[in-house]
Amino acid sequence: MDCRSNGLKFEKTKVLKYVHVKYIAMKNKDYHIEEILNSIEGIRRASAPEFFYTRLKARMEKEVQGVYAMPGLLKPVFVLGMLAVVIFINAFVIFNKTSASDELHLAGNDTDLIQLYASEYTPAEIGNLYDLNIEK
Amino acid sequence: MTESELIQGLKEKDEKAFRHLVEQFQDQVYNTVLSIVQNPQDAEDVAQEVFIQVYRSVSSFKGESRLSTWIYRIATTRALDLLRSKKSKKRFGVLTRLFGNDNEPVFEPGDFNHPGVALDRKENAARLFKAISRLPDNQKAAFILHKMENLSYQEISDILQVSVPAVESLMHRAKANLRKWIAGQTD
User: Fold this and answer.
1) Is pLDDT above 80 for B102?
2) Any residues with CB less than 8 A from the CB of B80 and at least 6 apart, and which?
3) What integer pLDDT is reported at residue A136 of this predicted model?
4) Domains in chain B: ranges and CATH
5) Distance between CA A94 and CA A75 in Å, rounded?
6) Would you kindly state where each structural domain of chain A is located, as residue ranges?
7) Contact residues of B toward A, CB < 8 A
8) What are the pLDDT digits (tens) for B36-45?
């Protein structure tokens, strides 16, 4: 009986030790996470690099020069103008084509078209061949 | 020089006013942008672009918000735009590499050390910045403006053009996400 109770006591202490170790580890981990999250508390503001204004001014001047130095054909106004002309020509051609095909559909009925095809595909030579055969 | 005088000077393209503006706001802009893009070279480029945009579009500034709010808004937007373009380049880079004609290095954020962090906290801060880089844009902007620039929720709400409760929610979600990712890393 004593042995059994001693065994139970031992098991209980083992479990308690395990829980305690786990708890400490968890606490340590939480503490570490908090430490990382608080690492930027009281951070100093980063200063802009030296001669920031001088470099900025140089860049602005370079950009302005770049726009003026652009060859005429690459200037945005010219490019946009050319694009507008191309779009206009395309739209004009598409519009004309669709209206022409509409006119064709409206102009004649199907019988007229069939007759037109028939007259075009009736070879005059058929008659000549026939005549030649008779002569033979 | 008062703010209204400064704005008037900028609208008249007065160089003195522009110089004054740059000297007054360069550190705020640079620090915000640097914390977002996490690269000093990119941060300087973006900070320059911010001031160029301010100079060019000051005529459209109606004065409904403070000048600093407007500048912070431009800085945040520009920095996030750069990150987005780098990410899309990275995605495209993976595609072009498949076809074997890409020799340019693609965007891989390395360890970032903010110059304002105390020496004994550098390692932890680098881990935090790595986690910050994973945050969604709006959470990232709110977190950085609050933690790095010490701005109030009201000021952040003016900059991001959202309500104060929305900023609170963004901050709460940002902290939860950071905690989750850092916990994942420490396992």
Assistant:
1) no
2) B36, B137, B140, B141
3) 44
4) 1-109 (1.10.1740.10), 111-187 (1.10.10.10)
5) 29
6) 1-43, 72-136
7) 19, 22-23, 26-31, 34-35, 40, 44, 47-48, 51-52, 55, 114-118, 121, 124-125, 127-128, 147-149, 175, 178-179, 182-183, 186
8) 999 999 999 9
